[in-house]
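Example for tutorial group B:
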């Protein structure tokens, strides 16, 4: 007759095998943790790059605005027919289109309130504010830019217009 014999190998556990058996259970959480840290780091780098880009754009535009135009602005509804306002508005529209910025706008302090001036938005846009519109929900950072004269980036934040990140740069009169 025929005999069937199956031979099975008995696994031998060596010192090497014992030390390697704990590697896989620890490797998976370690890889997940490293992936999380790497993603968080990349997020911070991207946020820092965005912050610097937005600030650079705000500062470039603020520095390009001629002081004589600024002196002619009232930040009221009467600015709509003011030639300085119209020139600045056209420059802001061009700048916004060139850089792909959704909203470029000006603000000023009038009394104890912040009001909006010219912007690159069409009057029918949901974010648009006529000149002289009071900013109802300014943040500490908005006031701080006026107080310090230093540019600032902040956000994301929410106000009466929606959720945003913001770069503000003051237009300073050297005199």
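The residue assignment follows.
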């Amino acid at each position: 007759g025929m005999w069937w014999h199956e031979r099975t190998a008995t696994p031998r556990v060596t010192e090497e095998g014992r030390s390697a058996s704990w590697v896989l259970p620890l490797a998976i959480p370690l890889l997940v943790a490293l992936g999380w840290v790497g993603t968080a780091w990349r997020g911070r780098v991207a946020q820092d790059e965005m912050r610097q880009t937005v600030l650079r754009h705000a500062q470039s535009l603020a520095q390009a605005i001629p002081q004589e135009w600024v002196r002619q602005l009232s930040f009221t509804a009467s600015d709509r027919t003011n030639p300085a306002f119209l020139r600045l508005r056209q420059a802001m529209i061009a700048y916004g289109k060139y850089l792909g910025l959704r909203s470029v706008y000006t603000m000023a302090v009038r009394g104890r309130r912040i009001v909006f001036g010219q912007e690159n938005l069409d009057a029918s846009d949901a974010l648009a504010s006529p000149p002289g519109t009071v900013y109802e929900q300014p943040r500490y950072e908005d006031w701080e830019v006026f107080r310090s004269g230093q540019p600032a980036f902040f956000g994301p934040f929410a106000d009466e217009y929606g959720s945003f990140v913001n770069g503000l740069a003051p237009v300073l009169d050297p005199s």
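The beta strands are 105-110, 113-119, 152-159, 162-168. Compare this with the pattern of hydrophobic and polar residues in the output above.
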